[in-house]
Amino acid sequence: MEPAVEAHGLGKRYGRNWALRDCALEVPSGRIAALVGPNGAGKTTLLHLVVGLSRPDAGEARVFGRAPRDMLAEIGFVAQDTPLYRDFTAAELVTMGGKLNRRRWDTALARERLAMLGIPPDQPVGKLSGGQRAQVALALALAKRPRLLLLDEPIASLDPLARREFMQTLMGAVAESETTVLLSSHLLADLERSCDYLIVLQRSRVQLTGAVDELLETHRTLVGPRAGSESIAGVAKVVRASHTERQSTLLVRRGDGPIDPLWTEHEVTLEDLVLAHLAEAGTRVAASAWEVPA
Ligand SMILES: Nc1ncnc2c1ncn2[C@@H]1O[C@H](COP(=O)(O)OP(=O)(O)OP(=O)(O)O)[C@@H](O)[C@H]1O
């Protein structure tokens, strides 16, 4: 099946600085893909290129095989901080959405979704809580019945319960449709529960990309005797190593065959994997840059 999003040599420059560079990726159709990376890595830049809000300075992005600008009717976008017209009520926004998207708009779906979540339809959205506003933005984006839904840090300002509700709504809505989702976030633990595809950006470049289950399957944490630089049976690559006097802990990509039994193997979490790959590329990721809720 045709990928939902493709990028080839995609780049965007502001002045002399590349915000995104040599970006090559493919998000298969039907996935919920997480776009992660430290502040300033290029996530918003990539989303804006894919939604056609900005033009590339190099390469190209394609949405279901076509230029983003030819696919606007098929793309839903929730921008960072869920900007909505704050003086309008949710009901008015639903009506307005219908007028702006005559061809595909599903008013009943938006109303049902908002009613199910207990969002008051007649209050200006500026007076709703952050979580409720995020849900309104999501309901509006879904009412467009997009084939591709892009969300730029939709849960960043929400409390843990509101985050969970938002992600559950998103997953439920996507399961009912064939929508592909690309969602940027710093909240790795939340993404592990809901996303099945991963793109890691760092310093304007794609650092890692692939299906989450395959990435988790092909990486392991190994604990064993202090290691030197010798190769280890069954290990294709050491992504990150930390050592005490006697012991080494390695995050590795597995190779062929079983891993040397001298080492104890542990499964990795998405958070381990992302942080190890970011560290491998030499970024010092301050713990504060990654809000990882318990
Ligand atoms: N309009 C702009 N003018 C100049 N530089 C910009 C502009 N937009 C983004 N940049 C720069 O491009 C780089 C990538 O920014 P971008 O917003 O894409 O990062 P991000 O990964 O979304 O960051 P965050 O997680 O903080 O939202 C940063 O260095 C940023 O300063």
Short description:
The chain has 294 residues and is an alpha/beta fold. The chain is 29% helix and 30% strand.
CATH topology of the largest domain: Rossmann fold
DSSP strand content: 25-35%
CATH structural class of the largest domain: Alpha Beta
* Number of helical elements: 8
Overall average pLDDT = 87
Which architecture name of the largest domain does CATH use? 3-Layer(aba) Sandwich
Strand order of the largest sheet: 5-6-7-3-8-9
Q: Give the end-to-end Cα distance, rounded to a whole number of Å.
A: 37 Å
What is the H/E order? EEEHEEHHHEHEHEEHEEEEH
Bound molecules: adenosine-5'-triphosphate
Low-pLDDT windows of residues: 283-294
Under CATH, the homologous superfamily of the largest domain reads: P-loop containing nucleotide triphosphate hydrolases
Number of strands: 13
Could you say how many structural domains there are in total?
2
Query: Biggest sheet, open or closed, and with what strands and sense?
Result: 6 strands, mixed
- Which geometry do the CA atoms define? elongated
Estimated radius of gyration = 21 Å
Instruction: Classify the helix fraction into a percent range.
Output: 25-40%
What would you call the structural class? alpha/beta
